[in-house]
Write a structure and sequence with these properties.
It is built from one helix and eight strands, in the order αββββββββ. With 166 residues, it is mainly β. It has a single domain, classed as Sandwich (Immunoglobulin-like), CATH 2.60.40. The chain has a five-stranded mixed β-sheet, with no helix packed on it. The chain has a three-stranded antiparallel β-sheet with strand order 1-3-6, with helices on one face. The chain is globular.
Length: 166
């Protein structure tokens, strides 16, 4: 019964939710997710800004029983550069409709946040996100181009003068 409810939630997310086209990974193994949506991105390359979180919503199926999952990210420039997701790498902590351990065939909804650091160069790169199991074997992987941009300056364009009236 619980599997039916979880599968129904995943189906509703697919039908009602927005989606972002993603590709199969080229550097790492793993199946594509059932559904992927990167907030603010309907058509890649997805624009991400320094000092913000890129938020990725995923629906995927567990291929086998898994006690612990981790999410890994790598950016492809000339070679693959790993990016430490820190506490956001603990996939089980960010499941929206379940918890670990998960059973084979379970459909899971997951939200990943990746902080876009200011050290990232403002260029377009391919990012590969993969989820690995207890044995560090990737079972889900997606690739998406992202365009890194500097942070929005909310004060930009204001031509005011501040006067001290004391």
């Amino acid at each position: 019964m619980i599997r039916l409810i979880i599968a129904l939630c995943g189906f509703v997310a697919l039908v009602n939710g927005q989606s972002t086209p993603v590709s199969r990974c080229t550097a790492f193994a793993g199946e594509l997710p059932i559904h992927a949506y990167i907030e603010g991105c309907d058509t890649p390359p997805c624009v991400v800004r320094h000092d913000t979180n890129a938020v990725v919503h995923l629906v995927f199926r567990a291929p086998h029983n898994i006690r612990r999952m981790r999410t890994l990210a790598s950016a492809q420039m000339l070679t693959m550069f790993p990016h430490d997701l820190k506490e956001n790498a603990e996939t089980c902590n960010f499941l929206n409709n379940g918890f670990c351990p998960v059973m084979a065939g379970e459909v899971l909804s997951y939200t990943l946040k990746m902080y876009i650091e200011t050290i990232f160069p403002p260029i377009t790169v391919n990012i590969e996100f993969r989820i690995v199991d207890d044995d560090n074997i990737p079972f889900m992987c997606l690739r998406v181009p992202v365009r890194v941009r500097t942070a929005l300056n909310t004060r930009e364009g204001l031509n005011g003068t501040i006067i001290d009236l004391e």
